[in-house]
Amino acid sequence: MxxxxxxxxxxxxxxxxxxxxxxxxxxxLVLRGNLQNQARLQAQVAAHEVAxxxxxxxxxxxxxxxxxxDHPVVVxxxxxxxxxxxxxxxxxxGKRVAASQGKGTVVPSAExxxxxxxxxxxxxxxxxxxxxxxxxxxxxxxxVADYRFAVIQAKDGRGAEATVRAGAELAPEQDAVASVxxxxxxxxxxxxxxVAGVTWLVTRRALRPVEGIRGEMAAITASTxxxxxxxxxxxKDEIGRLAxxxxxxxxxxxxAVERQxxxxxxASHELRSPIASLRTQLEVGVAHPELLDVPGAVEDTVRLQxxxxxxxxxxxxxxxxxxxxxxxxxxxxxxxxxxxxxxxxIPVRVGELAGGEVAGSRSQLAxxxxxxxxxxxxxAVASVxxAVVREGEWAVLRVEDDGPGVPESERERIFERFVRxxxxxxxxxxxxGLGLAxxxxxxxRHGGSLGVRTGSxxxxxxPVAG
Length: 466
Prior knowledge:
48% of the residues lie in helices and 19% in strands. The chain is α+β, with helices and mostly antiparallel strands.
């Protein structure tokens, strides 16, 4: 069963079948029990009426016995003699009982019937309250049928004990149970067919939007057009949420692909300039060695090397590279990195250095600090300051300068790749626009954040190692 509809229909049919079988069995058992109790009550009432007549002194040949077709009755003495028998009753449990045409005829019998009753348990004129029941057969007017018998003991006015056995036919109970069973056997398959058909149709209708989503996704895959979207059904159920989530995924994928294309284009553009400059200088040097600008060639090579390193790091970050779990002392790192920047245009002043370790890669975090300091050096007028403070469970590294600051509307855009706000800045001094983008990516992968708190204050927040 490769189809969801087929599996759903089969599963629903099996569940309904099991439920109906269990319910039908319970109904049959309850129905049978109620009908058997009803037959037992009818037999008890018939036997009790005859026993009361005996206890009140009615002669056995004058007993008013119910019709044999309704309730066959046999009255026997302690020695097993048949004292009275209902009309048309010929045998009980295969034992013949003699009777004449009239009701209540006393007929001697040698059959032993309930001879083990407790003698002396009843007083003359009393009826035993204990009633016993058992199933048996009786032949009435030539027809043998199953009966439920009620057996009651009674004593007449002379103290003679008699046993009254009255039966209620079980055929109505058996017929009713059989009728219900047959109806269930006929109706169950039909009902299961209906359940399977309805489940198939309902599932088909419910899964129709899924087929639409699948078809559109197949078309998108074939066309590679990520601007297309799957149809969203108007319902607010799981399928509607699936369609909306699929469209959100397509939108994110489209954005990622577009960002990747733009990244490749920007990287190609940024690489073309130093490579072209370096090639020009080398070609001039080959033709005119005395005109070779060695320092310029070295500077272009260094710039090209830095750009390649930045692109490689971004590629690793985009591939999901996770930082190590080493402990890094931010204060010690700031002191060490700041002391090595002896060639900066503006000396870096170190402010407060609060203690606190963070988990991560020291080289990547040092790269973040270096990029922030490089950015501050480009914009500062006369001051660059770095500090580390502790705010609860966060270690905060701040880099600030006395430059003009970042306009509030541009404080997020500057963290995009290849973005430089000062378009007039020379490429040699302005960099490629990757430093802040790399710094934010590293911060996020360390579980922290990087942003501009005020115009010229950059703030790196990292969780303190527990």
